[in-house]
TrEMBL record:
Pfam families: PurS. InterPro entries: PurS, PurS-like_sf. It is found in: Cytoplasm. Part of the phosphoribosylformylglycinamidine synthase complex involved in the purines biosynthetic pathway. Catalyzes the ATP-dependent conversion of formylglycinamide ribonucleotide (FGAR) and glutamine to yield formylglycinamidine ribonucleotide (FGAM) and glutamate. The FGAM synthase complex is composed of three subunits. PurQ produces an ammonia molecule by converting glutamine to glutamate. PurL transfers the ammonia molecule to FGAR to form FGAM in an ATP-dependent manner. The keyword Nucleotide-binding applies. GO terms for molecular function: ATP binding; phosphoribosylformylglycinamidine synthase activity. Keywords: ATP-binding, Cytoplasm, Ligase, Nucleotide-binding, Purine biosynthesis. This is Phosphoribosylformylglycinamidine synthase subunit PurS. Transmembrane segments: none annotated. SUPFAM superfamilies: PurS-like (SSF82697). One of its GO terms (biological process) is 'de novo' IMP biosynthetic process. HAMAP family: PurS. It comes from Corynebacterium pseudogenitalium ATCC 33035.
Amino acid sequence: MARVVVNVMPKAEILDPQGQAVVRALGRIGVSGVSDVRQGKRFELEVDDSVTADDLDKVAATLLANTVIEDYEVVGLEVK
C-alpha cells in the first residue's frame, strides 16, 4: 500500500472569499504581516500497486478538483 496526496487550490485568478476572511481575522487576533491566504483542500488516497499515475491524474481531474476554477497537484507516493 502507498499513500498519495492530492492538493487542490483555487486558481490564482479566482476570488477566494474564505482566504480573505482568514486574512481579516488575523488582524483581530493580533497577527500582522500576513498579506494573503488561499484556502484549498488536501486529499489522501491509500492505493495499491495497480493504480497508475494516469489513474491518479484522472481521479484528481474528474472527481477531486473542479478544473474550471481549481488547480491540482498529485504530490507523490509514500510507501507504507
